[in-house]
Design goal:
By secondary structure, this protein is α/β, with parallel strands linked by helices. It has 12 helices and 13 strands. It folds into 2 domains: about 30-60 and about 290-380, Aspartate Aminotransferase, domain 1; about 60-285, Type I PLP-dependent aspartate aminotransferase-like (Major domain) (Aspartate Aminotransferase, domain 2), CATH 3.40.640. α1 packs parallel to α11 (about 335-340) and α2 (about 60-70) packs antiparallel against α9. Pfam families: Aminotran_1_2 (PF00155).
């Protein structure tokens, strides 16, 4: 052995480093948007970034106050969250969405919803050879989670049923990216089909509060899942409606047996929401006024952007709910991205969400009123 300049360490010469091992993941989508972003940022009046659904408005004072009040929390927080948080979540779903019959023990806080989406197949014990079914156009992390577990991926067009061997079916209404809303009957059929092949249903409901032209329904509504929540999970996030993305706060609820199993794994793995964030989340779930105010901000921005995009020759498809407009100029998505970037407007190509998005772009409502106004002026030029 020879020492090769290490301080106190010994290196073995003549031996190559081992090849990194792990799942083969797709390219992180927004990395491929770098050149379009550079072009958009070169606009004399600055970029209008409508590519990512990240909140830009302030965290409501009532939530910041709750965070500060919980700051003196030297001990480890409970993975299961406080009893108050769980009961407040149950009450919020009843009050805001008419969901009844939930067990407060079957509520589990998550460190935002993205980490939960990415790790859910693994936490459920999905194995190589199993199938994870995702929507035809879908949030990319559904696919990433399946790959982390070594599972196969099937994209289901509307109305398609999952194949035999499917272990997990993702639902997403309102949809990211399209804003499409599935009615109760459609969702009930999806739940029935998943149960028929023995699959768990996970419904990503982080846009449930943002219905524009129709009222979205939770998978836990009795009209969807019936009298039993067996095999059904609803995933919620506070990022969009409470401007909480920086706090990383969400929760999952539904089938008590499944939630209990997830809790046990997460306790072992240390997947715990910090106690001050739990206090702020409890305040957010207990206060509907800040949700209403944020809804109105997004509604106004949506109306301005919709009108401006149509005036520039685009067609808006679906977009009945959610935080995005699903726009098409009947041309290649990347050509549209480039056309808008030359006007200082950055959007996401529909291909980020699946091959069926090749002629669409996703336009987020998450920009300040001033930036939205800048976008409408540029689209009118």
């Amino acid at each position: 052995m020879s020492v090769d300049g290490f301080s106190g360490g010994v290196a073995v010469t003549g031996q190559s480093s081992p090849e990194p091992r792990g799942p083969r993941l797709p390219e992180f989508p927004w990395d491929s948007l770098a050149s379009a972003g550079e072009l958009a940022r070169s606009h004399p009046d600055g970029v209008v970034n409508l590519s990512v659904g990240t909140p830009v408005d302030s965290v409501p004072p009532v939530l910041r106050e709750a965070l500060a009040a919980g700051a003196d929390s030297p001990g480890y927080p409970a993975t299961h969250g406080t009893a108050e948080l769980r009961s407040t979540a149950v009450e919020a779903l009843r009050r805001r969405h008419g969901v009844t019959g939930l067990d407060t023990e079957a509520v589990l806080p998550t460190v935002g919803s993205k980490e939960f989406v990415a790790w859910l197949p693994t936490l459920l014990g999905v194995r190589p050879g199993d199938v994870v079914a995702i929507p035809e156009l879908a949030y990319p992390t559904y696919e990433v989670g399946a790959r982390l577990a070594g599972a196969e991926i099937v994209r289901l067009a509307p109305g398609q049923t999952p194949p035999a061997g499917t272990a997990l079916v993702w639902l997403n209404s309102p949809s990211n990216p399209t804003g499409r809303v599935d009615g109760a009957a459609t969702m009930a059929e999806s739940v029935r089909a998943a149960r028929e092949v023995g699959a768990v249903v996970a419904s990503d409901e982080c846009y449930l509060d943002l219905g524009w032209r129709t009222r979205p329904v939770s998978v836990l509504d009795r009209a969807v899942s019936g009298e039993s929540q067996d095999g059904v999970l609803a995933v919620h996030s506070l990022s969009k409606t409470s401007n909480f993305a920086g706090y990383r706060a969400g929760f999952v609820t539904g089938d008590p047996r499944l939630v209990g199993n997830l809790l046990e794994v997460r306790k072992h793995a240390g997947m715990i929401m910090p106690r001050p964030v739990q206090e702020a989340m409890t305040a957010a779930l207990g206060d509907d006024e800040h949700v209403r105010q944020q809804y109105e901000r997004y509604r106004a921005r949506r109306e301005r952007l919709w009108s401006a995009l149509e005036g520039a020759g685009f067609r808006i498809d679906h977009s009945e709910a959610g935080l995005y407009l699903w726009a098409s100029g009947d041309t290649d998505a990347w050509s549209t991205v480039d056309w808008l970037a030359r006007r200082g407007i950055l959007v996401a190509p529909g291909t980020f969400y699946g091959p069926a998005g090749k002629q669409h772009v996703r336009v987020a409502l998450t920009a300040s009123d001033e930036r939205v106004e800048a976008a409408t002026r540029r689209l009118a030029e």
